[in-house]
Specification:
Blueprint (H helix, E strand, L loop, with lengths): L12 H46 L4 H26 L1
Helix pairs in contact: 1-2
């Protein structure tokens, strides 16, 4: 075991570690952010599709207006992922 004299100890070691770890944690946080946004959008698209198919099953005559509304809702749900991607970078 090597003994380092007190005057030779590196007092900047915690700062060096902090400067290395904080960017890594920020990157991980950004990746989690995008992943959660994508997961939420995927769940939203699935619920929209489920509701649209159920609505068409109950009233087949209204299939075209239901399809238009479903496509718009899906586009808005997927836009959340693009917002998250742009915010991360």
């Amino acid at each position: 075991m090597t003994v380092v004299p007190a005057e030779a100890a590196d007092h900047n070691q915690p700062k060096k570690i902090r400067d290395m770890i904080l960017p890594l944690l920020a990157e991980i946080g950004g990746n989690i952010h995008v992943g959660l946004a994508a997961l939420g959008a995927a769940i939203g698209v699935g619920l929209i599709g489920m509701g649209a198919s159920s609505a068409v099953g109950r009233n087949p005559g209204a299939a075209t207006p239901i399809l238009v509304q479903a496509i718009l809702a899906i586009a808005f749900a997927e836009a959340i992922v693009f917002y998250a991607l742009f915010l991360v970078h």
